[in-house]
Amino acid sequence: MRNKTFSLQIWDISGQERFRTSSPSPFRGARGVIVVYDITDEVSWGNVQKWLQEIDRYANTDICKMLVGNKCDLYNERKVTTKEAQKFASEMNFEFIETSAKCATNVEEAFFKITSN
């Protein structure tokens, strides 16, 4: 997959409520979705379930889904364990990876994973 060219349209809706309640457009027609949560924030982790409901409601049933735990560089501040997130992702049939946008850890790998499915 690393030698193929892909065109990605990325919608960063950043937890914006207006997308959750009024517009299915970010999900309609999408072939993949990446749900990102902050490993240091339990509220962010709790919101994952709400976003999954919206994805299930508006997206195609065969959409590729990935769960990404961000800020893995802040391991001393972790509130959501890797094991907990891996278990959840496995139960939901999601790909899973932890990243650090700050340190660029696994960011490219997340996109490689989502495009390889």
TrEMBL record:
The keyword Nucleotide-binding applies. Pfam families: Ras. The keyword Mitochondrion does not apply. SMART domains: RAB (SM00175), RAS (SM00173), RHO (SM00174). It comes from the Eukaryota. Keywords: GTP-binding, Lipoprotein, Nucleotide-binding. Signal peptide: none annotated. One of its GO terms (molecular function) is GTPase activity. InterPro entries: P-loop_NTPase, Rab, Small_GTP-bd, Small_GTPase. SUPFAM superfamilies: P-loop containing nucleoside triphosphate hydrolases (SSF52540). Belongs to the small GTPase superfamily. Rab family. This is Uncharacterized protein. It comes from Arcella intermedia.
